[in-house]
Structures are given as structure tokens and as C-alpha cells.
Write a structure and sequence with these properties.
Elements lengths: L2 H21 L7 H18 L2 E2 L17 E3 L9 E2 L2 H8 L4 E7 L2 E8 L2 E7 L5 E3 L2 H4 L6 E3 L6 E9 L1 H9 L11 H9 L4 H6 L2 E11 L8 H10 L7 E4 L4 H11 L7 E8 L2 H6 L10 E4 L6 E12 L4 E13 L2 E7 L3 H7 L6 E7 L3 E7 L19 E6 L2 E6 L5 H11 L12 H9 L16 H5 L6 H14 L1 E3 H7 L7 H10 L4 H5 L3 H5 L5 H12 L2 H11 L3 E3 L14 E4 L9 H10 L3 E3 L8 E3 L8 H9 L2 E3 L1 H9 L2
């Protein structure tokens, strides 16, 4: 294992240990082992001059900005000419050695390093001008924050989000309409966040694919040498094969066989001459450089027959069309369904039951309809919801037509809405799974949120239900009674306003001094001026509270609740502005969370790593040679025992 790979492994081990120790109150390795691995990582970083993003030896602070500034690229970033013909790719290479690599499907980013440190990151943008995302790049999963080379270095890479992370993030979004369509869209939004804490949570990876400049470095006129040099500087480089025209078909075949196993999205390959001078001598056309050529997969397309269109409702009322067709084999798997996404696409394909259609897998992964060979256009767009039978209506937004159920009592809409309402971060009502809620809705026990607090009217029926009984009923009643005493942010979140999570609900309530009436009457323009909100969220909130039915439900709900504001005694915030790090075993507190809660209750902050911003390190072994103690001493940060902390800040 090379040194960079070992550093990545050490970083993962140490981060897992810290997460378990600080967030989960459990130990997966001893302090001795942690310090030993930490020291090994620190030594490797000093030896190689490489510090990777997320390294436990550094802390990159989260930061929010009001906007992403624009910056013009030093040289235009051109698109590549494309082909789907392997023979054309082989002819392009001829007798020359080329590098054939993945064409990753993400967002291109230009990184600049000065004096060995990451100084700037800019998106591709329109090729001429991009957005500065330096803060976000610092929290990519694998970008080096420092590199050994001290001369100016500029490189290009593709930021991507892996399929596994894409699926994880989408699984956390209840609203089908709000789910991301593909990893590229998710990556684009993640890379361009105004708050890089969100970027960090999305697990963005960057793979270098081109070196623009490395002052003082020599590469013997070889792009492969540039790739090897970048790898030596700590970068993950896009996977490639060195091949000439004669070996092109075999190389393409090997790449295509690997696509289905990849966890990262790609939409083809890129072929570039290894000989830098030769490639540059070819110049460029008005649109494309002549030293490289993109290869797009020749999609495996199959004919089949459309059997039906299913209409699938979501919590917001959006009804998505799904094409069901006779099964076909595509890229090694059997496929029989494909999302049509919206009514606009349905109309453009002129779909009709029994039509002969062609289907393929986008990027060899996601089933899609390529074409309709019959084009009968006979599919009837329903005017009723397939679940509740209520009216369904086409609505247009940004030139896209979509079908929505207009019935506020729709069981599908209500089930998802009630599931959110009772969830932990909302009203936190135990004993109400989606299955139970579905039974209650079906029996007519609950039609709006307030009805949940009158389930006692149906005691006998509930106790008689399968899976229920006297004990389950009693626990449910206790949970409902407890839920009556709640906070306004929880209530606002529980309403299911599009784009409003618990964090945004807290911001809104604080902005309006916990006055719900003021919030309900705020306009979109006013709301969008709140830091972190923006136009989309502002419009969502205004539209929600403009609905008469929403307000009736809320008014009825408020009659059932005892809403309190968590009082903060500012005179008790004796630790305001102080940042603590806790390490080692404790004697006065049962665990770190208990001490952390005490510090935060008095306005202080607890972090996991010692940095120049740390005020105090709490460690009962003040004289130990642990990594945190050593770091604190280097930075001149005072180390306190528990008793020191209590004497100075709590018991005086």
C-alpha cells in the first residue's frame, strides 16, 4: 500500500473512532491505539507534504456565504467532440499512444494551489466564467488541502457523487417530487451550496483528469507522467488505460464491462494523446480541441410494447407517470418499467397503450424510453386521482406540465403527510407507523392533524384492531398527550411545507420572534431575504399559508397544543463564545454528552478537534502525551481537568 492510500485508511479509522467516541458514547479503539494511529498519520503528512480533506489532524470550519462570486477562467474550457463509433475512436488514435479514461458525469472544477496549499476552486460554468466554490472544495471527501509541490499548480477534475450516496440521500427525502433525478443533479447542487456544511454531508469526490500547469515540474512531454505526478501529490486520478488504435476496441470493451459495477456515474470515455506537444500542435476548431475525443456509449436499445401507464401519487399531490412495458433484457438485466417523469414528456413521446417503443438504460443504469415508433398518442391523462378518485389537474411550472391530485383528503397524500407529522423531529408521536396510519385513515378516524388528538373517541375499535390491544392503546394515548406540549419549530416542520426541514423551521420561528401569525402572513419577497432561505423557500411558505384548507387544519391543530418557547436566560450564558474539546475518561459526568449538554446550556460550544479556535481542552490527564494534549500545547491552549473546569466555570 502506498503512503497516500495508507493516509486515507488512517483517516477513515480515526474518523470512525472519533464519531463513536464523541457522538455515540462508545469506544471502538483505546486512546493508546488512537494516538498511535494519529501519530502515524501526522508523520506521513509531514513526510509526504500531503494533507487530505477531512484529515483528523486538521479542522476545516463550516462557513456560509451570501452568494458565490463569479470568476473568468484563464483559458476557455472547451467541450469535446463526440463519437459513438469505436472505429472512429481507433482511427483518432491511429499509431499514437493515447490515454483512454472514464468520462465522469458530474461537475467540472478547476483547482489552484499556491505554495502547496489549496487557494481557489472554480466551477466550469459556461466555459468562460465559473463560480468560486473554494470553501466547498475544502470539504470534498478526497481533495488534498496541502500538497508537496510549492510552485503554482492548476488542475481540472470532475466532482461526482457516488450512486450509493445518491440512493442514501434520496432515501431520506419523503416527498417523491423532491427527490433528485440523478447523481449529476445532486452533485451540481451540492458543489454550489452557500453553506459548505451541506456540501460536506453529501460526500462529494473529485477525480483529476487534466493538469493545466505545474510551475517547475517536468513531465517529459507525457500526459501519463502528469497523471502519475498528480497521484504522487495526493490526488485521485481518473482511471485510464494507455492504448493505441489497434488496442482500442479491446480497451473500450473492458471499460464497458466495468460500468455496471461502478459506484460512480459516467456517461462515456475520453481519449487524449499522451504526447502533449503533438496534441497541442493540432490546435482546435471553433468549438473543440483536436487533441482529444469523447466516446459516448452506443446505448443498447430494445423494442418492446407499452402495456400501461401507471400513475403514482406522492405527499405533495404530484402524480408521476410510469411506463409499464413487456420485459426486455438491457445491459444484462430484465427491465419492464421506466419513469416518464411528467406530463410534458408523456405528451412529447405521443404514448399510447400497445405502441411499439424503444427503451435503453441512460448511462447504462437508469431505464428510459428512447422513442415511440407508433406515436399513437392515445394515452388518456386521468382527471381523477388513482388512489382517492378526487379531481386531478395539470399544472404548469417553468414550462413543465405535471399532474396533481387536488383532493386535500386524498389517502395517498394524507398518509405521507401524517407520517411526517408524527415523525421524531416533528410531533414525535410513538406508535403510529405508516401501516397504522393507513388503517386509521381508512377507518375514517383521522382526516386532519387535530383528529390524532381525539383517537380516544375510537378506543374500542383501535383496541380490537390486529396488532393492537389495551397496552398498545394506552402507550399511544400517553405519547399523544406528551406531544401536545411542544415547540413552534416542531409544529412548523410537521406541516410538511415544501423545502422546510426542522433547521429551516427553527430559523423562520426565530426570525419572527416565535409569532406564528406574523409568519403566516409573511410574503415570499420578505421571506426570501432571511439568510439561508432564498426565493424558492420563500415562495413555498407563502403559497402554503395562502391555502384556506391548510389554515383551517392549522387552526384546529393549535386548539389541541400547548406551544412553549424554550426560554434562554442570557445571564446564565457564562460560556458564550468559548469553544471546548473534551477527551479522555470522565469522573464527575457519566459520559461526554452530559458534559457537552452542560457546556452548551451555558452558551459554550463543544467540538471534536483541537484548533487555533479552541478555548480550552478538558482532559483529566493534563500531563498525558496524547495527540490532543500535544496539539493544545503547540497552540498555547490551556488544558483543564474536570475539576478545574467545574471550579472555574460552574461552581464559583
Amino acid at each position: 500500500m502506498d503512503k497516500t492510500e495508507r493516509m486515507k485508511e488512517l483517516g477513515e479509522l480515526l474518523r470512525d473512532a472519533s464519531r463513536a467516541y464523541y457522538q455515540e458514547d462508545r469506544e471502538i479503539m483505546s486512546n493508546f491505539d488512537y494516538d498511535r494511529l494519529y501519530d502515524e498519520l501526522e508523520a506521513l503528512e509531514k513526510e509526504t507534504g500531503i494533507v487530505l480533506a477531512g484529515s483528523p489532524t486538521v479542522t476545516v470550519g463550516y462557513e456560509a456565504v451570501d452568494e458565490l462570486p463569479k470568476e473568468r477562467h484563464e483559458t476557455p474550457m472547451l467541450s469535446l467532440d463526440k463519437t459513438k463509433d469505436v472505429e472512429a475512436l481507433a482511427e483518432f488514435a491511429g499509431e499514437h499512444q493515447t490515454l483512454l479514461s472514464w468520462k465522469l458525469d458530474g461537475l467540472t472544477v478547476v483547482l489552484t494551489y499556491e505554495d502547496g496549499k489549496l487557494s481557489k476552486a472554480v466551477t466550469r460554468g459556461n466555459g468562460e466564467t465559473g463560480e468560486v466554490i473554494t470553501n466547498n472544495a475544502r470539504v470534498f471527501k478526497n481533495v488534498p488541502l496541502t500538497i508537496p509541490h510549492k510552485g503554482e499548480v492548476i488542475l481540472r477534475g470532475e466532482a461526482v457523487i457516488r450512486y450509493s450516496d445518491f440512493e442514501r440521500i434520496n432515501a431520506e427525502i419523503e416527498d417523491e417530487a423532491a427527490k433528485y433525478k440523478n447523481p449529476r443533479n445532486l452533485c451540481s447542487g451540492s458543489v454550489r451550496q452557500l453553506n459548505n456544511e451541506i456540501t460536506a454531508k453529501r460526500n462529494v469526490y473529485l477525480y483529476a483528469f487534466a493538469l493545466v500547469r505545474a510551475a517547475g515540474a517536468e513531465f517529459a512531454n507525457s500526459r501519463e507522467n502528469q497523471f502519475k505526478w498528480l497521484k504522487g501529490q495526493g490526488f485521485d486520478v481518473v482511471e485510464y488505460k494507455k492504448v493505441d488504435g489497434a488496442g482500442m476496441a479491446q480497451a473500450v470493451r473492458e471499460f464497458s464491462e466495468a460500468v455496471a459495477e461502478n459506484d460512480f456515474p459516467s456517461d462515456g470515455l475520453v481519449c487524449i494523446y499522451d504526447d502533449i506537444a503533438y496534441g497541442q500542435s493540432l490546435g482546435r476548431t471553433a468549438k473543440f480541441p483536436r487533441d482529444s475525443l469523447a466516446f459516448k456509449w452506443q446505448d443498447e436499445v430494445r423494442e418492446t410494447r407499452l402495456k400501461e401507464i401507471e400513475w403514482s401519487p406522492s405527499r405533495t399531490g404530484l402524480i408521476n407517470p410510469v411506463a409499464v412495458f413487456e420485459p426486455v433484457e438491457l445491459e444484462g438485466t430484465t427491465v419492464s418499467r421506466a419513469s416518464v417523469h411528467n406530463v410534458s414528456i408523456l405528451k412529447s413521446l405521443k404514448l399510447g397503450i400497445g405502441d411499439t417503443i424503444t427503451v435503453y438504460k441512460a448511462n447504462m443504469i437508469i431505464p428510459q424510453i428512447a422513442d415511440n415508433l407508433t406515436g399513437s398518442g392515445t394515452v388518456q391523462i386521468p382527471d381523477t386521482c388513482p388512489v382517492c378518485g378526487g379531481p386531478a389537474r395539470i399544472q404548469q411550472m417553468n414550462d413543465v406540465e405535471s399532474l396533481y391530485c387536488m383532493n386535500p383528503d386524498c389517502q395517498a397524500k394524507k398518509l405521507k403527510a401524517f407520517a411526517l407529522f408524527v415523525s421524531r423531529d416533528a410531533m414525535n408521536i410513538d406508535g403510529l407507523s405508516e401501516m397504522t396510519l393507513e388503517k386509521f385513515i381508512g377507518c375514517g378516524f383521522i382526516r386532519e392533524y387535530a383528529d390524532l388528538f381525539h383517537l380516544d373517541c375510537h378506543k374500542d375499535e383501535i383496541i380490537g384492531m390486529e396488532g393492537f390491544g389495551e397496552k398498545s392503546y394506552r402507550k399511544l394515548m400517553e405519547s399523544l398527550e406528551k406531544a401536545r406540549h411542544t415547540t413552534l419549530p416542531r409544529v412548523v416542520y410537521s406541516l410538511g411545507i415544501p423545502n422546510i426541514g426542522l433547521a429551516n423551521a427553527k430559523v423562520l420561528c426565530k426570525e419572527y420572534d416565535y409569532d406564528l401569525d406574523r409568519l403566516r402572513h409573511a410574503g415570499a419577497e420578505e421571506l426570501s431575504q432571511i439568510p439561508g432561505m432564498g426565493e424558492v423557500i420563500g415562495a413555498s411558505v407563502e403559497e402554503y399559508f395562502a391555502d384556506e384548507e391548510h389554515n383551517r387544519w392549522l387552526n384546529d391543530l393549535l386548539e389541541e397544543l400547548d406551544i412553549y418557547v424554550e426560554e434562554v436566560d442570557t445571564s446564565a450564558l457564562t460560556l458564550d463564545g468559548k469553544i471546548f474539546v473534551i477527551t479522555g475518561s470522565l469522573t464527575h459526568f457519566s459520559n461526554r454528552s452530559e458534559l457537552k449538554d452542560l457546556i452548551e446550556s451555558k452558551g459554550g460550544k463543544v467540538t471534536g478537534s483541537v484548533t487555533s479556535k479552541t478555548s480550552f481542552l478538558i482532559n483529566n490527564d493534563t500531563a498525558s502525551s496524547s495527540s490532543k494534549n500535544k496539539k493544545a500545547k503547540e497552540l498555547g491552549i490551556e488544558i483543564l481537568s474536570e475539576q478545574d473546569f467545574l471550579d472555574r466555570f460552574i461552581e464559583n
